[in-house]
């Protein structure tokens, strides 16, 4: 693969990762959001594979496989189960409406470009120039986490944040050491499983997963 | 100081002789593996056999093994040397000090757990399944914390802190019900997000290390010793972003503003011995991560930036905690906010960063850990006795249960920094170090806040201890809430003394630390490793 082609591919994939993140803020249908998250997982795996091929690194290709299984397969499957159990198909009343969310997404993306200036400056290359995408996805995930009220939406926000971090890690460093990467993936998986169980308990205790019900503990 | 750091690094790189190697290698392996492996084995035993009284005592023995390993590590590292096993596990004086904190608090908490879970099973407040899960998770919790402080690699250290969130999630939710579910959800979501930010910071540090230049092969590493040795070559632009993320991220687990809101809920809903472990050790283990990163940050960046950042979150946390304590009506939440206040003080010590300040904050961490372990475990017994966590629901404790009330009162005295307890010495040393670094205004602010905290704690606690105890009130308080499980009253009365013993031991340790100062050498060595200027 020539350098020009791989650079173009890299840009296309990075763009797709950002686009899927923005679309999750646009959709209200939770099943569609989970689908978007899975698609984003495929693109992140593609990014790792592309970097692995251009750098001829078997370790990176292995990481790409792990990312594909986890982010496009296992995690969305768990989320679908939570969704099926809960019977709530839509994020009914986000604290910020869709139009405002999309405007906020634009502002956050600009902010990501400003923030990642020093990161790109350290080692300018095709990959690091795409770094603002990773940071933008982190910010969008954080935004989703604080503005949505369904428990499942919050988990999705957390996973979006994690996808952003994984993207940043691949773009900046071609992946942290495999041991650490595996540890992180395992942690994310366990956190989601823990949250799945807690969400089930929440339904038993409160009858819904609307987090406005969480108001007994305050001063 | 600088020579101490340099020597430690040379030794870690194998450039200085470490004594007869095979011998020392085996000792190091044993000392470093015991704190991780033995509690994990205790967890396995509990998984196989379920909760039994003797299995619970095995957990106490495992905690004692951590403490003994900590003492052995302290003896080996007090001179500034380093124990290492295969580049994965590593212990210097700082690690040893943290192992002492983990071991000491764990002994108290697991010992208290024997009566706590035994009582709950007797009163049918928990099931055999719940007790088994509790026993497994508490042992795993201790093992992961020990692993965190022993990790040579900052990535592994991160994974250890994240793992503590996972193993403690169901401990926070042990009691079930709406409040516990709510506390668990907040705890897992907020801490996971915080720790994810810390991971992003870790990635950026790795990125900076990949491009730090130089021909000696610093091609991307998270090994702490190597990073410290080359910290001045890390790119300041990237490191500035990384440090902000790390302080925010690990600060979440320390209970610092702005991501602190999980702390009072989790601490007040968790079973008392778990609160003791979380407040006494978990917070400071996350603080330990900040200590490790601070040395790198100060060398890579403008030290004034790092100091300002830590001062803002430190003072902010103390101010917030003090303001929440003033009108607090729940004693477990009062203790939780007090943890936040003390972690704020520790962070201020970190901001000062001189060897004196570091030694003082380590002593403070140890003292706070022991005092909080005593207080949370005692508050669990007060809850069992009275059935309420509201302070105005507890009256005349001194008349009803002199021993418990005495332990509680002495614990509060220790927490408030009264002599002869070690927090008096450490707070004094912290103030001296802060003033010595030209930050007298910080001392002034902190003193005012501590005065507020003193009143906020002392006044309601005095009511709990000495308040008029009305016999007609007894029917309401004792039987009003516990009538569903009358067995608990009998069981609690029968096992009064055994549950006081570990708490009394904690108080004795606090006095010994305050009066005899046996750890001065170790703490100074630790301070030489992560202190600056």
Please write out the topology.
The complex is a heterodimer of chains A (219) and B (533).
Chain A lengths: L2 H24 L3 H25 L3 H29 L11 H18 L1 H6 L3 H4 L1 H17 L3 H23 L4 H29 L13
Chain B lengths: L1 H11 L8 H29 L3 H25 L5 E3 L3 E3 L1 H30 L5 H23 L3 H19 L4 H34 L13 H6 L6 H19 L7 H8 L2 H29 L2 H24 L4 H22 L2 H32 L10 H4 L1 H14 L6 H15 L3 H27 L4 H12 L4 H8 L1 H21 L3 H11 L3
Antiparallel strand pairs in B: 1-2
Helix pairs in contact in B: 1-22, 2-3, 2-5, 3-4, 3-5, 4-5, 4-11, 4-14, 4-21, 4-22, 5-6, 5-11, 6-7, 6-11, 7-9, 7-10, 9-11, 9-12, 10-11, 10-13, 11-13, 11-14, 12-13, 12-18, 13-14, 13-18, 14-16, 14-17, 14-21, 14-22, 16-21, 17-18, 17-21
Notable traits:
heterodimer, A: 219 residues, mainly alpha, B: 533 residues, two-stranded antiparallel sheet, 22 helices, 2 strands, globular, transmembrane (chain B), EC 1.-.-.- (chain B), ComplexI-like_HydComp (chain B), Hydrogenase-4 component F (chain B), membrane (chain B)
Describe the model.
The complex is a heterodimer of chains A (219) and B (533). Chain A has helices spanning 3-26, 30-54, 58-86, 98-115, 117-122, 126-129, 131-147, 151-173, 178-206. By secondary structure, chain A is mostly helical. Chain A is globular, with a radius of gyration of 18 Å. Chain B is mainly α. Chain B is built from 22 helices and 2 strands. Chain B has helices spanning 2-12, 21-49, 53-77, 93-122, 128-150, 154-172, 177-210, 224-229, 236-254, 262-269, 272-300, 303-326, 331-352, 355-386, 397-400, 402-415, 422-436, 440-466, 471-482, 487-494, 496-516, 520-530, and strands at 83-85, 89-91. Chain B has a two-stranded antiparallel sheet. In chain B, strand 1 and strand 2 form a beta hairpin. In chain B, helix 2 runs antiparallel to helix 3, helix 2 packs antiparallel against helix 5 (128-150) and helix 4 runs antiparallel to helix 21. The longest helix of chain B has 34 residues, at 177-210. The N and C termini of chain B lie close together (8 Å). Chains A and B meet through helix 5, helix 7, helix 8 and helix 9 of A and helix 6, helix 7, helix 9 and helix 10 of B.
